[in-house]
Amino acid sequence: MSNISDDIKEVLLDEKTIRQKVREIGKKVSRDYDGKDLMLVGILKGSVPFMADLLREITIPCTMDFMAVSSYGSSTESSGVVRILKDLDYEIENKYVLIVEDIIDSGTTLSYLIDYLKGRKAKSIEIASLLNKAVRRKVNVKAKYIGFEVPDYFLVGYGLDYAEKYRNFPYIGILKEEVYK
Ligand code: IMP
Ligand code: MG
């Protein structure tokens, strides 16, 4: 049987480490948004595992919605041009929006999204990103919740893909360079 984990150089964050961190973030979100009309907005498709796990660690009432965006460019570098493929299904007026994302890299996607949603009269728009690759930042974005600071390697698993593969790993690993070079 073929095994996609053969393409992984090293596991960076294992299942247990991720689970504990997501639990921590869930607790903080539940505390910070208590009494507020919280709406989680997941960015498809990378955020799906994080969203599904975070959602179940949140103990206050909340709703969820999804957006899909694409940024043109080669598969390991984003180009800086963002396109909305799927907008929100619901209005965000008077809601406390928390954007749920897998990773902040250059910051282009999230800074574009925040600008895009700005006119819709949300009470607040904040970001929860599982991973942050701070060294790669080109555009300034501030996330309220960050799971892990990660080094500048191309990572896959737990939602993160290369050419749409590897999203199904329960852990986050460093992709072998020979896979994409
Ligand atoms: P940004 O717009 O440059 O911040 O890019 C954010 C998007 O690029 C993320 O939502 C991911 O889809 C993708 N991305 C950035 N770094 C990685 C990585 O190491 N592995 C997989 N996808 C990544
Ligand atoms: Mg993504």
TrEMBL record:
Tagged with keyword Transferase: yes
Metabolic or biological pathway, per its Swiss-Prot or TrEMBL entry: Purine metabolism; GMP biosynthesis via salvage pathway; GMP from guanine: step 1/1; Purine metabolism; IMP biosynthesis via salvage pathway; IMP from hypoxanthine: step 1/1
Cofactor(s) annotated in UniProt = Mg(2+)
Q: EC number(s) for this protein?
A: 2.4.2.8
What are the transmembrane regions?
Answer: none
- Record carries keyword Cytoplasm: yes
Q: What is its main location?
A: cytoplasm
Task: Give the source's domain of life in one word.
Answer: Bacteria
Q: Where are the annotated coiled coils located?
A: none
Q: Which InterPro entries match?
A: HGPRT, Hxn_phspho_trans, PRTase-like, PRTase_dom
Keywords, A to Z, come to: Cytoplasm, Glycosyltransferase, Magnesium, Metal-binding, Nucleotide-binding, Purine salvage, Transferase
Q: Which reaction does it catalyse?
A: GMP + diphosphate = guanine + 5-phospho-alpha-D-ribose 1-diphosphate; IMP + diphosphate = hypoxanthine + 5-phospho-alpha-D-ribose 1-diphosphate
**Cellular localization per UniProt:** Cytoplasm
Summarizing the function annotation, the protein's role is:
Purine salvage pathway enzyme that catalyzes the transfer of the ribosyl-5-phosphate group from 5-phospho-alpha-D-ribose 1-diphosphate (PRPP) to the N9 position of the 6-oxopurines hypoxanthine and guanine to form the corresponding ribonucleotides IMP (inosine 5'-monophosphate) and GMP (guanosine 5'-monophosphate), with the release of PPi.
Q: Which family does it belong to?
A: Belongs to the purine/pyrimidine phosphoribosyltransferase family.
Name of this protein: Hypoxanthine phosphoribosyltransferase
Q: What is the lineage of its organism?
A: Bacteria, Bacillati, Bacillota, Clostridia, Eubacteriales
